[in-house]
Every structure is written in structure tokens, then in C-alpha cells.
Amino acid sequence: MKTVHRIDPAGVPSQRLPSDIDRAHGNGLVATGLRHAYGRLTVLDLDAFTVAPGDRHAVIGPNGAGKSTLLDLLAGTTRVQAGAITYNGQVITRRGAAWRARTGIGRTFQHPIVYPDLTVLDCVRMGGWHHRHHPDRTPAEVLEIVGLADHAGQLAVTLSHGHRRMLDLAVALAGQPRVLLLDEPAAGLTDTETSRLLDILGGLPGWMAVVLVEHHMDVVAALADWITVLHNGRRRTDGPADTVRADPAVAALYLGAGGDDAAHR
Ligand SMILES: Nc1ncnc2c1ncn2[C@@H]1O[C@H](COP(=O)(O)OP(=O)(O)OP(=O)(O)O)[C@@H](O)[C@H]1O
């Protein structure tokens, strides 16, 4: 199994230590050979992706690199076409998003979905429905954490963009994930909101693994200890966050591919 993780079809050896990979196999999320295509366009072709407990793993890359597709496949919101996903040693490739959420894989969305008829509190209740009898935290406590306690009775659809993002995070947290997948959580946030987000994410328990897709490098710098760089659906490189962020080739990738100048922020 280890060999699979050390070989990349593009010839880029992963820098993940075998001990990390072993940990992920026993008690984490492991994807191997994920390929995804829309029609004839292959948008993801990833040899391996591992998330061990407590990881703070950022996935970066220019627009269209396949980052959201990867999260969708890990969360089960998109069906796996090729490849395999295991979680805590159990094959979950064919399991749907609701099953995965109940089992501990939570996510937020690049474009949060808001139910027009539900209050903020009810949305969080829905997120934690499978833990309603023995929640680690009540929905009201989760709202307190994300700073939305004063908005509990408000219709979710009336929230500002920044508050919708916080609600999306609250819904995910109410599900008591062991792996939290975050799709551009800082997109469109003000500086104050971003700083609040960093406080919230920085305060997450150490056992919770976080996978962060993000263009804002300051957010990545604050949270990630490991970075995978995707380009055209493939793993361009991965490694410790400081090393990858300092790599001139990574900055060039953003600028050269017509992405924003995120690598410099
Ligand atoms: N439903 C779809 N139908 C066709 N093509 C799609 C669909 N969803 C995504 N794509 C394409 O797949 C590729 C990867 O998209 P994806 O959203 O995963 O990239 P990304 O790295 O998350 O980009 P961004 O940073 O812009 O959000 C893009 O070329 C995108 O246009």
C-alpha cells in the first residue's frame, strides 16, 4: 500500500512520511487513484491524498485546478468515477454525502446553500441531527462559537455573505466531524471576518483533521502545516507548508496560469 503513495504518474514523489500514511490508513481518510472527468475533460487525476487525525492540510492551486472536485469526491457530494476512498480503514468509495457526514466527514461549500424557510438555529440543528440525543455541543453553543448567537432566530436567507459562511461552518461543526473539509472559507470575507474565521479554526480541537481549499495565502499560512499543490488536476507538489509556500515555482504557477496573485498575499 505504501508504494502506491510514493509514486506519482507525473513523477512527483510525495513527501509524506510513511508513518503519516500509516496513521491515515488506520484512523483517517485515504484516497487513491482518484480520477474525475466531465465528458472528455479530465479535471482530476490524483495518485494519492491522505488525511491523518489532526492534520491541517491545505490544497492550493490556480482556478480550475480541481480543488473543489477533490473535496466533492472526499465528501461524497460527487460520485467517484475511478479510484478508492477509505476512512478509518473502511472502504467508503460508494457511500453518499449524508452517510459520510454521519460517520465524521463534514464539509463547507464554496457557495454555501441556504434554506430560505429555516432559521439560523434550525440550520445548525439539521447539521447536528444525527447527534441530537448526545451532542458534544448544543446548536446554540455552536452558534456562539461562530459568532452568530444573536442571529439564532433570523431566517438564514437574510444573513450577509460573511454570516452565511459562518453559518455553513456552524452546520458542519454541529455534525461533530473528525475530518472537516473547508472549501474557500475566507472567500468574500472582510478582514475582520477573516480574522474571526482564523480564531475559530485555530481553536478547533487537535484531533480534528482539517482540509482547507483556499486562495488566501495568509489563511493558509496561519492554519496549514502541510500543503498539496494541484495543477490541471494533478499533484504538482506537496510538502511542509513553509517549504511549499517559499517555493518560487508555486508562485509562478499561480501567475503563469492566469490565476490571481494569491501566492503573494
Ligand atoms: N459540473 C461541471 N461540468 C463541467 N465542468 C466542470 C463542472 N464542475 C467543474 N468543472 C470543471 O472542472 C475543472 C475543475 O474545477 P474545480 O471547481 O474542481 O476547480 P478549482 O480548483 O476548485 O477551481 P476554483 O479555484 O476556481 O474554485 C474546471 O475546469 C471546471 O470548469
From TrEMBL:
PROSITE patterns: ABC_TRANSPORTER_2. Residues 29-257 form the ABC transporter domain. The keyword Transport applies. SUPFAM superfamilies: P-loop containing nucleoside triphosphate hydrolases. The keyword Cell wall biogenesis/degradation does not apply. GO terms for molecular function: ATP binding. SMART domains: AAA. It comes from Micromonospora peucetia. Keywords: ATP-binding, Nucleotide-binding, Transport. InterPro entries: AAA+_ATPase, ABC_AA/LPS_Transport, ABC_transporter-like_ATP-bd, P-loop_NTPase. This is ATP-binding cassette domain-containing protein. Pfam families: ABC_tran.
